Amino acid sequence: MARRKKIYEGKAKTLYEGPEPGTVVQYFKDDATAFNAEKKDVIEGKGVLNNMLSEYFMTGLNNIGVPTHFIRRINMREQLVRACEIVPLEVIVRNYAAGSMARRLGLEEGTQLPRPIVEYCLKNDDLGDPLVTEEHIAAFGWASQQDLDDILSLALRVNDFMSGVMFGVGIRLVDFKIEVGRVYDGDYQRLIVADEISPDSCRLWDIETGRKLDKDVFRRDLGNLTDAYTEVASRLGLMPKGNTQVARPTLIN
Known about the structure:
By secondary structure, the chain is an alpha+beta fold. Helices cover 27% and strands 32% of the residues. The strands form 3 sheets. Strands 8, 9, 10, 11, 12, 13 and 14 form a 7-stranded antiparallel beta sheet that branches. A 5-stranded antiparallel beta sheet has the order 1-2-3-7-6, with helices on one face. Helix 1 runs parallel beside helix 6.
C-alpha cells in the first residue's frame, strides 16, 4: 500500500493523513534543534522516547478531564491524534526562572517564582517566535478573550498535573510549553491541548542534584540527550532503567 499523504513536516515531527476522517498520524523524528534551528543534530532514539513520554502525559491529562488531541499510540514512533486548528501561539508556563526569562529579567537561573507565570509567543520561526502580550493577541485576532481565558485555564491545569507527576519521581518541573488546538462539534468550539508534551518541550531538573533531564542537555552540550530522556522514562516506569535500546523509524501505510 502507498504511504499516507504528508500534511506537514516540522523540526521534530511529521504529520500524515489519518486512517479516519478528522484524524492525523503524528510521527516523531530523531531530529534535535535549538536556537531556532541554528543548532541541529540527529539523536538516535529521541523520537521513540518522546512518543512514549507524550503518550503517557497526554493519557494522564485525558484521564483527569483535561482535553487533548491524543487518541492512541500506533507504534514506537507514531500516534493517532485528532485533527485540530492550531492556535498560532506557544503557551509557556514557568515555575522557576530559567532560559530566556532569567536573561530578560536578570534573575538567577533556578529562582522560584512567586506563582506560575504564563507567557505567550507567536509561532513564527522567521521572527524567532517572539514574546507577545494578551493585547497583541486580541488586537491581531490570534485568539479571542474567551480563548485566552480557556487557554490560561488549560495551561494551569496541565501545570498542576505535570508538577505533581514529576515531583513524585524526584524531578522539578521548571517550565514547559504547550500548543492549543481548536476543534468543532457542530457550531460549538472548544480548545484542547495539542502537539506534544515531552522533555523537548519541558525543563526538567533532578530535585536533589539539579541535573538537567531535558533539551538543555543538547542546547548546552551537557552530555547524551538520549540518556537524559531515558532517565525520565525510567523514573516514570515506562522502561527498564538504563535501557537505551530504542527502535528505528516505522511508517504506517
